[in-house]
Each structure stands twice: as structure tokens, then as C-alpha cells.
Amino acid sequence: MTKYKICVSGSAENNCGPGAFKKSWEVGYQIAKQGAVLVTGATIGIPEWATRGAKAGKGVSVGLSPASSKREHVRKYHLPTENMDMIIYTGFDYSGRNLLLTRSSDAVIEICGRVGTLNEFTIAFEDKKPIGVLLGTGGAVEEIAHILKVAKRGHKNVVYDTDPARLVRRLLKAIKERDRIVEKAEKKIRKEKVTSPD
Length: 198
Fold this sequence. Notes:
Structural class: alpha/beta
Shape: globular
Radius of gyration: 17 Å
Number of strands: 7
Distance between the termini: 36 Å
CATH architecture: 3-Layer(aba) Sandwich
Number of helices: 7
């Protein structure tokens, strides 16, 4: 069975609404329990709480660090190393790390957040990744629907929910549906190659 990778993106600072860290823990736990791999930016705050939840759910957690080494990760960026099964040291600082983080994931969940979270959202949106927005957590995610309305870009591939378990379930369904569409297109292309003359 394919292990889908779900990124949790969110604020490293506590600018969040009440209970946001607890909901992030629950998201990480649900990602693990529903058979996916958690991917984070290997940072504090919302992502760290998600890694704790994934660990409690006996899941796999991968962190993509902005640093180029463990030493830099700890000393320069002051980031944690616990609760992750693997940390990939990108060396691309935060903006480059954000691009790799979203591109290496099958879907992204946005919780609370500030500008970095919006950056990860726009990358995932432009890449047409399934995106889950956990409402009721405060921060920048509460403005995403408004931003898309003002930008006149629609809400395709964006799922809004207040319940962590349901949001993870809905995102996994969206990933599987996307994969079915891709597989159907690939089969059609293979069939056309077989039946078309040289």
C-alpha cells in the first residue's frame, strides 16, 4: 500500500487560537492512524506538536530543515530534533525549504500560521495539491478563504474543516481521487501507444 505524505504547515510561534496546539497534535495522530506519513518543516510550534501526535500514533514523521546540518539546525535555527524519524537538512533557509516541503508532499494541512504558512499554502495551491485548512485555530489560515475570493482563484483542491480526524480523512480521499484520475489518463495513453501505428 502506498504511504501518502501529508505536510502539516503552521505557526512556529504561539499566535494561535485556544487549543490550536492540541488540534495540531490530533492532526499528527490522525495522519499516523490513517496510514499516512507526516512531513513538517522540522520546526517548533504547530509542526512540533504534529510530530508529537504522529509519534503517539506510532506513525512515521519526516522533517525538512532549513539548515544545512544538524549543528546548524540546533545552534543557528534553534530547532528541535525529537519526535522525527528522519530530518533532511536542505540548506535552503526557510523559503527554499518551504518549496521542497510542499513539493515532496501529496497534500498539505494548514493550521494557524503566519506569513511562512501562507507561503507554503500558495506553493501548494499553484501546484494543485490537495490542501486542508483547519479552521478555528487562529492566525493566517482564517483568512485563506478571503484571500482566494479577493484573488478570484476559486477554492479548487482546498478543503475546510474544524475536525482534525475528518480533515485528514477528506484529504486522503482527495489524494486517492487525484491518483485515480492520473492512473486513468496514463492507461489511456498506454493504450493509444499500443494501438497506434508506427
